[in-house]
Write a structure and sequence with these properties.
The chain is 47% helix and 20% strand. By secondary structure, the chain is of the alpha/beta class. It has a single domain, classed as Rossmann fold (3-Layer(aba) Sandwich), CATH 3.40.50. A 7-stranded mixed beta sheet has the order 1-2-4-3-5-6-7, with helices on both faces. The chain starts with a strand and ends with a helix.
Length: 161
């Protein structure tokens, strides 16, 4: 499957997977390599070369995971994350960087990044990280449902008492 380029370097790929991933990196080769790896697992993937391009294709509910470079032109990955999370707090983030620092790792953790990966990273780690994120998101959804059900049961018990 070859990528289709739609305006300004934003590439969209449709695969059969239900997980929707937005990859944001200014390195074209890395974007394409990530697409290749993700498409093997059937993930629907959109690639963007900058934070601005990512925001141009992002709509609430449109992505499950954003994989973003930390250093991007004009807007860094953490800024992008803040803007996207304001629109859709359910999106999970994986940060990749070629310029790691203790400060950026701590800030990423504070901001709720699922994982902070240093370039070059083993390509095989990406599908594992994605599965871990998806499992965590499923567990969070299950906990919400269980809490709601428990709350309803408690309310019924109060009414009957």
């Amino acid at each position: 499957m070859e990528p289709e380029i739609s305006g300004g370097g934003v590439w969209k790929f449709e695969a059969r997977g239900e997980c929707r991933i937005l990859v944001v990196d200014d390195e074209e080769t890395l974007r394409y390599v990530l697409y290749q790896a993700l498409s093997k697992f059937g993930y629907r993937t959109t690639l963007a070369a900058s934070g601005e391009e990512a925001l141009g294709v992002f709509n609430p509910g449109s992505y499950d995971i954003v994989i973003t470079d930390l250093k991007l032109p004009k807007m860094d990955g953490l800024e992008l994350m803040q803007i996207i999370r304001e629109k859709d707090p359910e999106v999970a983030f994986l940060v990749i960087t070629g310029y790691p620092s203790l400060e950026s790792a701590i800030e990423s953790s504070i901001q709720g990044v699922y994982d902070y990966m240093i370039k070059p990273f083993p390509l095989g780690d990406i599908p594992i990280k994605i599965l871990q994120v998806l499992e965590k998101k499923q567990l969070e959804r299950s906990v919400k449902v269980l809490r709601k059900n428990l709350s309803e049961i408690i309310e019924k018990c109060k009414i009957q008492a």
